[in-house]
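Budget justification aside, the reviewers requested a transparent look at the raw inputs and outputs of the sequence design task funded under Objective 1. We therefore reproduce one unedited record. The lines immediately below are the structure tokens for a 564-residue chain.
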């Protein structure tokens, strides 16, 4: 079974039949009407959105027996020849498989001769960015001395890879993604013509999976019909779109986490054999890794994922094969590769490459870690020679501990503006102490020991919320420093820190976090600097991007128990 059936059958034969791309269609039709067709065009955009289709309609429009006309007849000999792929004057060349000068020489040669049977010779080069440098040069020569009555149309999914020397000689049309609504309407149309019974809900699921590509949507509908016949029920369709998500996804993550690159190829083959869309599979895979990351970093998953206990257990077991930090890195790499896959004209090869790379990921020590290792050694040497053993600062994300790697912090100038002026601070502070007095006088008494305090609002708090989200709150930070050697007081406050926070929140009228620091080593400046540095750390940034999270505090990593 070929699942390009609908794509072929429903390839538009006129400009009017095109879905979307209105501006492009109109511009071309006007150009034909006014006899201002350009010598060369570049059509760019993702796959399956009509580039080749428009190129062929344009070829017909120029050569139709009743033309040049914006509305080719589709009946005359020339129109039929194009439609049936047998026109001698319309050449379609695949840039991906024609990379050398020899491959391109037929173009140069044919371009030299006037069209045989038609008004115009139309040369369509698909994936033109794949041509080699030599082939490009040959093409460029042809474009510099444009042969008479020859039109070039270059299609590409990666416009940025087309050399400027070529692009500057062409009129460029950027084809747009097809909207979900347009895709659904188009599918409805096909369903009606093919007498397929399918719900609007199901068509929306397909459109969503197709992500802007009409051809992908058509082939998903093809697969659905192949699977369930002419009556597609929603569950079947979910099955088709979703079968990917269970066993295959776990199979794939196991390959990656257990570093078995050789098996990647067979897996992709299997996925393709089942007729799955690779891009859809990829989306599910990204989601799967996000779930694994959650499973690895959060104890109570029940409220975060719509899964039953058994499924959660399966996730946890799988996630245990790597550290949370590693899974985070996989997830980030997968996300970064997604646009590439979407635009790739060879998704299978692309996907294989990405997955094989991920299989080797654990072995590749990030440069960052290497730098840290070196820094650590240097620091330890220095410390040893001075007889000090203070642990270097790290970022507390709950991940670093596992591998004992501390993020590399480089010196950066510090700048932190206090939110409330000191005089105001004093006032507020006294109010807080007053209120504490009412609640717990012993606690309030301790506060007289503090040497300085400061109110800030620079940090955010990450929370796991029952509704699957990471909620970010923006608390005010109340920083209190105690004089050296006053550990008792500090610990007393520490024990009741929740009470202090509650009371302070009530006084200030905003959520308050209390931070206790040592006046001696620490003080706010060092903390500020650590925070500043932490925010510049790539690992931290990735974490923040992925979860829309922010750093709440930076603390020294507790090394091994013996050292403490
Ligand atoms: N804009 C569109 N309007 C109608 N059908 C489309 C459109 N884009 C793609 N298709 C469908 O997808 C198939 C492949 O489209 P094609 O023009 O080859 O895409 P591209 O060259 O952009 O990869 C067509 O045969 C047609 O059935
Ligand atoms: Mg094409
Ligand atoms: Zn015609």
């Amino acid at each position: 079974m070929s699942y390009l059936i609908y794509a072929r059958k429903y390839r538009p034969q006129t400009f009017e039949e095109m879905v979307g791309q209105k501006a492009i269609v109109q511009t071309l039709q006007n150009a034909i009407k006014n006899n201002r067709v350009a010598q060369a065009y570049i059509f760019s955009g993702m796959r399956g959105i009509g580039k080749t289709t428009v190129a062929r309609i344009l070829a017909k429009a120029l050569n139709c027996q009743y033309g040049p006309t914006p509305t080719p007849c589709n009946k005359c000999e020339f129109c039929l020849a194009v439609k049936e792929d047998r026109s001698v004057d319309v050449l379609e060349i695949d840039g991906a498989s024609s990379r050398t000068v020899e491959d391109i020489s037929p173009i140069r040669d044919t371009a030299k001769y006037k069209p045989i049977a038609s008004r115009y010779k139309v040369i369509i080069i698909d994936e033109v960015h794949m041509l080699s440098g030599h082939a490009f040069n040959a093409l460029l020569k042809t474009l510099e001395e444009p042969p008479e009555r020859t039109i070039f149309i270059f299609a590409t999914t990666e416009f940025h890879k087309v050399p400027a020397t070529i692009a500057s000689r062409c009129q460029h049309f950027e084809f747009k993604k097809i909207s979900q609504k347009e895709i659904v309407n188009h599918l409805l149309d096909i369903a009606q013509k093919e007498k397929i019974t399918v719900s609007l809900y199901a068509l929306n699921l397909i459109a969503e999976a197709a992500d802007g590509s009409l051809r992908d949507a058509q082939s998903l509908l093809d697969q659905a019909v192949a699977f369930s016949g002419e009556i597609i029920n929603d569950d079947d369709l979910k099955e088709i779109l979703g079968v990917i998500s269970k066993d295959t996804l776990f199979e794939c993550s196991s390959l990656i986490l257990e570093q078995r690159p050789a098996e990647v190829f067979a897996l992709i083959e299997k996925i393709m054999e089942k007729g799955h869309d690779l891009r859809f599979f990829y989306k599910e895979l990204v989601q799967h890794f996000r779930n694994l990351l959650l499973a690895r970093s959060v104890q109570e998953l029940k409220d975060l994922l719509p899964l039953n206990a058994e499924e959660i257990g399966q996730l946890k077991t799988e996630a245990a094969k790597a550290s949370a930090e590693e899974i985070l890195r996989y997830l980030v790499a997968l996300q970064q590769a997604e646009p590439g896959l979407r635009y790739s004209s060879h998704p299978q090869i692309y996907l294989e490459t990405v997955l094989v790379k991920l299989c080797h990921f654990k072995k590749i020590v990030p440069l960052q870690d290497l730098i840290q290792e070196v820094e650590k050694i240097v620091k330890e040497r220095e410390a040893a020679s001075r007889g000090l053993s203070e642990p270097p600062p790290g970022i507390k994300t709950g991940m670093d501990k596992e591998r004992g790697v501390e993020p590399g912090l480089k010196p950066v100038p510090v700048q932190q503006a206090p939110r409330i002026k000191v005089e105001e601070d004093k006032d507020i502070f006294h109010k807080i102490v007053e209120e504490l007095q009412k609640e717990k006088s012993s606690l309030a008494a301790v506060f007289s020991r503090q040497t300085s305090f400061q109110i800030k609002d620079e940090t955010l708090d990450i929370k796991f919320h029952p509704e699957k989200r990471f909620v970010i709150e923006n608390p005010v930070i109340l920083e209190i420093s105690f004089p050296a050697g006053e550990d008792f007081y500090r610990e007393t406050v520490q024990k009741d820190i929740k009470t202090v926070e509650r009371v302070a929140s009530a006084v200030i009228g905003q959520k308050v976090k209390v931070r206790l620091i040592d006046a001696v080593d620490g003080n706010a400046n060092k903390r500020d600097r650590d925070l500043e540095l932490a925010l510049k750390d790539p690992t931290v940034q990735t974490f923040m991007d992925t979860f829309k999270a922010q750093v709440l505090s930076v603390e020294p990593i507790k090394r091994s128990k013996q050292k403490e």
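Residues 267 and 277 are 13 Å apart (CA to CA). The chain is about 50% helix and 10% strand. Computational costs for records of this kind are itemized in the attached budget.
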